[in-house]
Amino acid sequence: MILSYSSISTYQNCPLSYKFAYLDRLPRKKSPYLSFGKIIHKALYYFYNVPTPNPPSIEKILSYIHENWSPEGYLSKSEESAYKEYAEQVLTNFYRVNIDTFSLPVALEHRFKIPLNERLPSGEPCILSGIIDKVEKTPSGGLEIIDYKTGRKLPSQSHVDNDLQLSLYCFAVKEIWQIEPEKLTLYFVVPDIKMSTTRKAEGIIETKNLILNVAKNIKEGNFEPIENALCNWCDFQIHCPLFKYKFKKSVEPAETKKIIDEYVEVKKREKITRERIKELQTLIHQHLDENNCDRIYSEKNVVVRLERPSFDYDTDRLKKIMEPLGLWEKILKIDTNILDNLLKDDLIDKKTKGLIGAIKKLKSVSYALHTKEIDEHPVKH
Ligand code: SF4
Q1: 371 pLDDT tier (thresholds 50, 70, 90)
Q2: d(Cα 179, Cα 171) in Å, to the nearest integer?
Q3: The predicted structure's pLDDT at residue 375
């Protein structure tokens, strides 16, 4: 089985979308972002792909993008020319920033296919493939992996520190050049910002295990859909069981549709009412405080403020009283919310978490009704 960064991350995000894209090979929509990303990558390859440190001039780079431009994915001529202008700006800026420090890279668009030492339970080999945009020498003689990004938005540093693509490329570089990369960089060429990180040796083992785990799940046919933040941009919504309501709206009888819409409307009003009640309560409390009283009248109604004291007990002293009576256990109740939160943090070690997990019993199942508006005009991408 051959896996790449893109197939692994697709699987992690939603196993069903992996199946649609990589096994069923359903067609995907073209998008301006993809086309824009492709031409920027091509131009950067053109810039660095020279035998001696004599890079092409900016004029040559700009005419290169015009000659190699693809209209694919753009919705109109005006959108296409806006992107062309944008590409020119981004590349001109890239050139200005990088020309003085130009040096020949160690590798450029380096394609790799690395068989993992471990095989899948079926005996099948597992191969990691990919293309590394650029590998550079660092001033200390080490290697720096660079992956160009053409989006505007910057991730957080902790996202970069855990970025799967960099982890996979770090593993690949170590296998290819037998040297641990010194630096891993995502270069956001639009804002011209480099975000760098490193990986520890144990991180590389974790990465290998992650690849094997994804491969094993694919082999076992685990393709459950996972609704996620990217569903609105998913090319396969029409085939997805979680979104079939969106494409089969006329199937429900008219009476059922009325019930659905009324339920959603009432829920909306409920929220507004709850918020208004809170505001009115604050105003009434204010009035009672200012007038030092505990009731307030209108022509038709009276509101009375009643004291509702709440008490607590000294746990140790209460235990001393209740325990001899054999009643202590009866008043203790496990708070599963507190327990769940404790299990999420590091106060409890892995082994104990496993022991607690093993004695967890299903008590009951309740069903919540989740509502959401059907987006008639999904965001175009
Ligand atoms: S719409 Fe969402 S849940 Fe369905 S296949 Fe696509 S990503 Fe997965």
Answers
A1: confident
A2: 10
A3: 57
145 lines ligand 1 (CB under 6 A): no
Quick check: CB of 227 below 6 Å from ligand 1? yes
Spans of all domains in the chain: 2-242, 254-304, 315-354
Is the overall model pTM greater than 0.90, yes or no?
Answer: no
Check whether 61 has a pLDDT greater than 50: yes
Any atom of ligand 1 within 6 Å of the Cβ of 218? no
Pocket residue to mutate for ligand 1, from 236, 247, 381, most atoms within 8 A of Cβ: 236
Helices (H), the chain: 5-13, 15-18, 32-48, 58-67, 77-98, 157-161, 164-177, 201-219, 244-247, 254-290, 315-322, 328-331, 336-344, 350-358
CA 232 / ligand 1 centre spacing (Å): 8
Does 236 contact ligand 1 (Cβ within 6 A)? Answer: yes
Q: Which CATH number fits domain 2-242: 1.10.260, 3.40.50, 3.40.190, 3.90.320?
A: 3.90.320
**Amino acid at site 111:** R
pLDDT of residue 330: 86
Say yes or no to pLDDT of 377 above 80: no
